[in-house]
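Q: What changes when iron/sulfur cluster is included in the input?
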Amino acid sequence: MDNIPSTEPVEFMLNVGPQHPATHGVLRLLIDVDGERISQVETHIGYLHRGTEKLCEGETFSQIISLFDRLDYVANFNMEMSYVMAVEKILGLDVPIRAEYIRVVTCELNRIASHLLFYGTLGLDIGAMTPVMYAFREREALQAYFESVSGARMMHNFFRVGGVKEDLPEGFLESLQSYLPKLKQAVQECDQLLTLNDIFLERTKGVGILEKVDAVDFAVSGPNLRASGVEHDIRRTEPYSIYPNLKFSIPTGTNGDSWDRYWVRMQEIQESIFIIEQCIDQIEPGPISGRTRTVIRPPKGEAYVRTESPRGDFGVYLVTEENKEQPYRIKMRSPSFCSLMALETMLQGEYLADAVTILGTLDFIMGEVDR
Amino acid sequence: MNGNEGAEDQKEQRREEALARGAERRRQREGATAKEYPPSPLIQSIVKTLRHLSVDTEQIMDEVIVRTDPESLIETCKLLRETAELEFTYLRCLSAVDYVENIEVVYHLSSLEHPHKTVVKTQVPTESAELPSVVPIWRGADWHEREVHDLFGMAFTNHPNMSPLLLFDGFEGFPLRKSYKIPEQKEGLGG
Amino acid sequence: MISIFRGLITTLKTTFRRPVTVQYPSTHLPLTPRYMGFPVLTWDFKIQEPYCTGCLVCARVCPTDVITVSMKDNPKAANEESHRRKIVNDFKLDISNCILCGLCVEFCNFDAIIMSDFHEEGSLTRVEQDLPLVTLLDMGKEMQDKGKFTPPPPKKRPPAKAKKDEPATDADPEKQES
Ligand code: SF4
Ligand code: SF4
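A: The predicted holo structure follows.
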């Protein structure tokens, strides 16, 4: 009689990660499952904590740019953007208009690359092998563009306080202009593969709903917030750089489920392409950087600058001292960090099999969460 | 000996003055002037809302800064969030800065309904670093406070779960305090 | 159902495209002109000495502290063959820690260091990852043969400011290069 298992419901704890392909990095989840439903989740982060904030305090202002590349290693240009803008704000420095255009073009290209990566890995997460091939084909082309601009495929170290490192290479804009229609077509292909696919809809519609109240309360930002129906985009609410001159719409979802988060990102790719097209039309020759500064010694002060990175509101809080080459304190407010905070609420009551979908659609990068 | 030290001091002072002058000249040459930001209308409404509390309000660049003492922090935050014309529902960022004697905790707030933003600052002495938690007001402060607890050794009372977040269990010291020294790196394999 | 077929048609269409992938170790993708591989040192063919004067700027600006430099008096300066009174004595670059940021190149005042195309410098031991001066110069010469480096333009220094023992005309032998 003893070896008959009891029929009493037993809570079972499942350990996911930190080395797990579905967690996109080193995230560890302790999931309590009740049957197939998740009853409670505990998130553990910090496995990629490199102490960037402490490191920054010992580096000079020009060296720090290369550290920011390594936060969100999928959207490096966007990370650099926030930092250089923070230093410029303290210095009270104006950036030449051409440099601003170059920054925006590279940032938007990077946003497309980042969203394509999201598209590919989401496919993989829910068991579709094909999308990642399509996504990476285009990402490869985009990275070739990055390489021709900055000399590196990922860690660009391209933005400078007061401008950018180099002008765009010759023929870059023409080549980009002829490539954009191809990119549009490729995105359309991606759309056909996944967006309205019955199985995909089945797996994502109504899964992992993030309520508007929760999203705002947890300070979730970017596409995740917009999918919950809040029209909030830093490029629009606190316009920086040349975004006031550019037309673009802000796609928003209605339900805040996984499909909405996916859809918002796919629409954002289209918007980014539109922005780049406008930039190519508007950009004019001119200087790309103020005086080259070898040594930067900002006055005493502090600045908080937020920009819209592909994952949302990326903020840099910079405190400086008078006549120091190093910052006194840098705090990075990373969007993925806040998205992950909402994960515990989102996963409650979902099927265990959907956990991977939800993780995939949150689109976090652990390098930025842990810093 | 003394004379030497005095000379050293003077030298140091002269050097610093020269540096300051150089920085000033450089700024002028590059046309970098402190930008003029229009005064924010937000100040009045904040002052009106918080008039019974001991807070200082001022504008630095484009941010309205509210300095408060730890006792009235919770009250301030509650009012900022709940007053109809302010509605700071979105906690942009929560961070801390170590000023050696004091630790300053900085709350960056913004509103989704209105296009305004503010900064709440409060200072506590480093030896008795303790503040009430704002998690009941913004749930999004949860991990930020745990992070500050990890890296600055700041205790947040009433916080639901104050376990280490970024650092591993048993980590000694508070890395982001200025007194913390980064340990020497070991060279070679296994280091 | 229809949507699944639509996806299948997309797949079918791409089946007959030319592949975009290459077989890596046998085929390399072309590098762009700005590609940043490991930094290497350049060689002044005119005077047969390195451009580098060992001024330590790159060592100080490197975020990961991988450069070690020392300086010595230039023997060629004594008999007026070279305008460099100091020259690099020893240079070591630990490429296992170099993050290819390009700051050293940007800050060097003598165009003595450039980003190369070399990016496959794996080795079995750590000692081999410390590139000495000779190797760096050899790599630099290879890059210069490929035309990756244009000698710095002559610096236009007003004669009044030139040092007494260095007449203004002799101060910039590179003038003749251009
Ligand atoms: S490479 Fe350039 S910066 Fe570095 S020591 Fe030589 S001359 Fe100086
Ligand atoms: S490329 Fe960067 S990391 Fe490498 S040696 Fe130069 S400065 Fe140092």
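Observations recorded in class: Helices of chain B lie at 2-29, 42-49, 73-82, 141-152.
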